[in-house]
Amino acid sequence: MGRKPLIQRETVIRTAIEIADTDGPGSLSLERIAAALGVKAPSLYNHFSDKADILAGVARSIVMETPRAPAPAGGEWKQWLIEASVRFRETLLKHSRAAPLVVEYFPRGLLEKLYAEHCRVLAAADVPTNYQMFILESTHRMTIGAAMCVATGRPAMAPFANPDQFDDKLNESMQQGNWSDAKLFAEMLRVFLDGVEADYSHRE
Questions:
Q1: Domain 9-48, CATH
Q2: What's the pLDDT at 4?
Q3: Is the pLDDT of residue 75 over 70?
Q4: pLDDT digits (tens, 9 = 90+) for 164-200
Q5: Residue 97 in contact with residue 20, Cβ under 8 Å?
Q6: Rounded Cα distance, 31 and 42, in Å
Q7: What is the CATH number of domain 68-203?
Q8: Spatial distance between the Cα atoms of 52 and 187, rounded to a whole number of angstroms
């Protein structure tokens, strides 16, 4: 008899990601993952406590694929945060069918580590302390929401299906807008961050 295949934790996670990318998170059973690896399902418990542990590993692995945005120069924190958010959104869309797993199983420890790093960048740019987590949590939610809209097939802003309901100037604006998903997301963040900066500058 041949030797049973040896598996490693990272191999299990990568296999789970491949299955989720192909068939969606609903297809991720222990039996399906084990079969893809050529082992029996109980073998997975040598590396994971349960299925949720595997899914948390999937979420962490996808998040860690996101390239880091270069540190901002000259206090350009808003453009830096937009770039970081754009990169995270692109990573989620690379795994669009697995994106719901990232939302549900995003490792809290990793999120707090990233928040701590980003807060230090904002502090260095003189963003008030009481605004820092508001900014980061808001952009985090916007990024996930924007990615989920695309992942579930919701189109970006486009000319109205029933234009008679709207003003002619608004219809013309929508015809000329050319709002791609990527453009809409970046502009949404820019307007939000400009507004936040204006708000705390006004209060100083």
A1: 1.10.10.60
A2: 56
A3: yes
A4: 999 999 988 888 877 889 999 999 999 999 999 999 9
A5: yes
A6: 9
A7: 1.10.357.10
A8: 36
Matching residue, tokens 């860690």: 64
Closest CA to 106 of 122, 91, 86, 123: 91
Q: Are 44 and 54 within 8 A, CB to CB?
A: yes
Confidence grade of residue 161 (pLDDT, cut at 50, 70, 90): confident
Residue (of 92, 25, 30) closest to 61 by Cα position: 92
Q: Read off the amino acid at residue 71.
A: A
Give the start-to-end residue ranges of the domains of the chain. 9-48, 68-203
Q: How much is the average pLDDT of 40-61?
A: 94
The 10s digit of each residue's pLDDT in 88-109 is 999 999 999 999 999 899 888 9
Token pair of 106, please?
């995003």
Which has the closest alpha carbon to 98: 31, 159, 155, 17? 17
Q: So what's the pLDDT on residue 1?
A: 47
Pick left, alpha or beta for residue 128 (phi over 0 → left; psi -120 to 50 → alpha; otherwise beta). Answer: beta
The Cα–Cα gap between 196 and 199 comes to: 5
Determine the 3-state secondary structure of 7 from DSSP: coil
Query: Is the pLDDT assigned to residue 141 strictly greater than 80?
Result: yes
> How buried is 149 (Cβ within 10 angstroms: 0-12 exposed, 13-18 middle, 19+ buried)?
middle
Q: Please tell me the distance from the alpha carbon of residue 152 to that of residue 131, in angstroms, as a whole number.
A: 32
Tell which wins on pLDDT, 74 or 143.
Answer: 143
